[in-house]
Amino acid sequence: MPELTLVEAVRAALGRAMEEDPSVIVFGEDVGIDGGVFRATDGLVQRYGFDRVRDTPLSEALIAGMAVGAAARGLRPVAEIQFMGFLYPAIDQLVNHASRLRTRTRGRLTCPMVLRAPYGGGIHAPEHHSESTEAMLAHIPGLRVVVPSSPARAYGLLLAAIRDPDPVVFLEPKRIYRALREPVADNGAALPLDTAFVLSEGADVTLVTWGAMVTEAMSAAAGLAEAGIGVEVIDLATLKPLDADTVLGSVRKTGRCVIVHEAALTAGLGGEVAALVAEHALTSLLAPVKRIAGYDTVMPLPRLEAHYLPTEARIGRAIEEAMAFA
Amino acid sequence: MPTHIAHFDIDCCACLDATGQAIGPLPEFARDGGTLRALYGAMVRARAFDTKAIALQRTGRLGTYASCLGQEAVGVGVASAMEASDVLLPSFREHAAQLWRGVTPLELLLYWGGDERGSDFAGPRGDFPVCIPVGTQFPHAAGVALAISLSREPAVAVAVGGDGSTSKGDFYEAMNVVGLWRLPAVFVINNNQWAISVRRREQTAARTLAQKAIAAGIHGEQADGNDVIAVCDAVSRALARARGGEGGSLIECLSYRLGDHTTADDASRYREDEEVRKHWKEEPLTRLRAHLVAAHDWTKAEEEALLRGAATEMDGAAETYLATDAELPAAMFDHLHNTLPAALQAQRAEVDNA
To answer: How large is the ipTM?
Structure first.
């Protein structure tokens, strides 16, 4: 079985999807000969040709809107927004069209499109290249928001997103694009959407996270295991709709919940997870829910970004505080 | 000294003057009395729908509605040029085009009356529902045209927007890719001179809207939007070019919004009645009727039968619309996704049990 990085797994899933379904097309800025600025589409144009792998003009609203039109007409477009920081012109199309075409035509026209975008900080990128604004997207009814956190999940979830009959925004944590390799069978097997993944079992604290923060969460959990604290790490993976059952089941078992995301704290998705726990598992709680997140500041440029992003140490302290409470 | 690099021209297609006289030799299709009767009948039908919709809104039985009064020639001209297999992507003002395409008056009333089933067209299944966020339908048309071109179908995507929509980035972005990839798309601008309260000349310094095509490398042309023959002719030629692999076009139809922007608007706040009165002399129904009378023996009896038939049809549609119950509340969940996600089932149950 080949060992792939996360970005290689994205590429493998794209190739597999294009191989098995001629209606899958890929377009975006620099996705053709250049293979994408992160090489996620490398080699696709050579294998599937210029008709199905298209460099678009520099037009993000067009990329999203064209995906809506092509999807409604029967294609399965997988469109790339080069960085999440440039996704905002596309939000009009996501809110007003992609997410509601099925509803507003009562199922006559549908929108089986995927909008991929690398997101998140930690790679010393220029301004506007490091934000995590997934909560904005998760607020849109009718839209799925999926974030993989490992090569295997990138492969399986992207295939699931492409095969899904409805629109999916697929956010790729670029800091871990090449952070590790793991065996990924390119066998066309999808992973389930709307399903959180329990990455490590533990009896004491539930640690809910997603994307690149899974790395910090797992390190923190490993460190605390040595101290005898059992941390159950949950990768939400699909941010909307959210797999509340897995989160609540774990919190009912552990009685403690720490939520970690690199997006800004206020109105971040951590608040939604905390609210679910408060609504449905309050009596199981032994300690207050804690959120470790990016600060409510503008995402700093690279010199300060390490101070912005949640660290293993901050996560560890939050868990220790939860343990100390009760 | 700069060197001359390029020169561009914009033509305007006009066939009948305001009195219904042919300006020059008419296009082939417009010499046939039967064809012209059908075009006239469709414009009368659209106006009858418009009249009924406004009456329903004024009596509290329809939601906010965007009238197409005075712009019937744009909708009918565009739609009559299209094949059934083409795809219409209309703005919110192109009822005339939708009616020609087979969307029923009942469906339109349901939509404007606040019922999503109105956009589940039984007729033109591939046509898009009306687009309310201005200009955002143009990128959809590019996507539809891309799908069409990949499948090698002979169809064309036809998007219609207003003069205001040509100021949007979506319009430019979509037109640019249509030019770049020679996509089979036709963009039609119903330039009714007003974007709510802002006049065409206060919208852009461009002398014509059609010339915006030049920057995208596609064909741009004006047509007299009060002249259904001119609109149909210009759009027919654009469709033929698109089908022939010659790429897209932008057709600017010069019309006039005789009514308010919508029933929620009061145009007397920003324009003089005198201006509107002047434009009533140019409106599209009168001139085609005059031409039919002069050139094709259109009779008073035919006119009366047409008006009566259209009014009866709209009365019937309104009656059915008013007698149609709303969907069950849980319907709001039923087309959100192909299958309702587990996370939403409790919300649906709450609505179901309320």
So the answer is: 0.97
